[in-house]
């Protein structure tokens, strides 16, 4: 990988830690190269060993995890894989805090909270922060301690707003990774991450790396099968055989982590419109479905004027085994949604294009149903797509992660809008 690294024209070394080096890029201001080292540490580098191939494994893990988060819509510093052991990232000034998120109590939490037994489950998730200070063994900090520290990075003061954003982002990131690992029958027990401030945009983004050093994973929820760095921490003696076990565990994770990106058998939205005059409305539904990664097809059929065709089209989509959500778009009297709903076990969402003149009367044809029908009604095309995505999200972690990230991003936008407004009125 050294040849491809040279092609990049490395600038100065900006930073070096226990596991990686950061270089500026001469031709790409605003970006850096994050180079992993073949070294594994524990107990703040008290234990330190070279591990052949460790950098490559860590690289693979980080790349997959950041790709997963980025595709979900989480803002991260990751840009792209560069080589076996290095990736390109947005240049950040790092906030010197490790955010720790826990679903299951284990490790240092048990020592700091005597009486709590290993396996205690946190719902909601437990969040802790640690100030990155090797000399002082990374002390745990409260939110108040972080606020009075008065950090300023890349010109951004770390105030309550930024702390809240990191707090919420950590929870969202954990939930997305937890859900992804669940597809591999793995419990994400806990996780630690770091944030940086994008030096160009002054945004708080997930930075550094997320690799096997960053979490505890228990296959099938079983601590005895743990596949994380704890195996290394627990070694009584570092023998070549023992290091092989640690390495095999790392490889197990890096093989599994690729599977997190695989789309489970995807579903499909079928939008049925009563007339092509509803096309604009339906295109909005299709576009919004796309943003959740849900395929969407549009068809024209009228349950009033061609009920035989309506039922034939319905049967077409029932017959190929692809899980389907029907969205019925019919103005005036909506016969379409209720007729489909009465004749299929798949979910049906009414999304009538409501008009100003008769809308208040028309909408009742989508609301008041004969018994035995379970269709829902949503008026906004975006919301209809979102609801369909939520249905698929129950069985598809990639769709679910997009919904979860979107919820976070909306929360963050509101927070930043409020901060701006407050600073204007000062
Ligand atoms: N995108 C980035 N931009 C700038 N610095 C980064 C970026 N990602 C990570 N770093 C920093 O690079 C340094 C080296 O990382 P690491 O070896 O993990 O250090 P440490 O031993 O302090 O954890 C750390 O200070 C880390 O915060
Ligand atoms: C699993 O943990 C090991 C040890 O921390 C780490 O090096 C590795 O990156 C993780 N898994 C993989 C293979 O990424
Ligand atoms: C961060 O900065 C880069 C420029 O270096 C910019 O392209 C990017 O959109 C910014 N935002 C995020 C979330 O990384
Ligand atoms: C995160 O936010 C929640 C809710 O505001 C708060 O109760 C908790 O103390 C915060 N955690 C940390 C570590 O800041
Ligand atoms: C924190 O920083 C702000 C400016 O960023 C300054 O006004 C304030 O006095 C500082 N507080 C402390 C305790 O240093
Ligand atoms: C998942 O874990 C459970 C134990 O919790 C086990 O019984 C089951 O066989 C596992 N399934 C897969 C697909 O590995
Ligand atoms: C050696 C190695 O595993 N390199 C990998 C680094 O990560 C990228 C992206 O996942 C892979 O394409 C490389 O093969
Ligand atoms: Mg680190």
UniProtKB/TrEMBL annotation:
Keywords: ATP-binding, Decarboxylase, Ligase, Lyase, Multifunctional enzyme, Nucleotide-binding, Purine biosynthesis. InterPro entries: PurE_classII, PurE_dom, SAICAR_synt/ADE2_N, SAICAR_synthetase, SAICAR_synthetase_CS. GO terms for molecular function: ATP binding; carboxy-lyase activity; phosphoribosylaminoimidazolesuccinocarboxamide synthase activity. Pathway: Purine metabolism; IMP biosynthesis via de novo pathway; 5-amino-1-(5-phospho-D-ribosyl)imidazole-4-carboxamide from 5-amino-1-(5-phospho-D-ribosyl)imidazole-4-carboxylate: step 1/2; Purine metabolism; IMP biosynthesis via de novo pathway; 5-amino-1-(5-phospho-D-ribosyl)imidazole-4-carboxylate from 5-amino-1-(5-phospho-D-ribosyl)imidazole (carboxylase route): step 1/1. It comes from the Eukaryota. One of its GO terms (cellular component) is cytosol. Residues 267-414 form the PurE domain. SUPFAM superfamilies: N5-CAIR mutase (phosphoribosylaminoimidazole carboxylase, PurE) (SSF52255), SAICAR synthase-like (SSF56104). Pfam families: AIRC, SAICAR_synt. One of its GO terms (biological process) is 'de novo' IMP biosynthetic process. Homooctamer. In the N-terminal section; belongs to the SAICAR synthetase family. This is PurE domain-containing protein. It comes from Gadus morhua. The lineage of its organism: Eukaryota, Metazoa, Chordata, Craniata, Vertebrata.
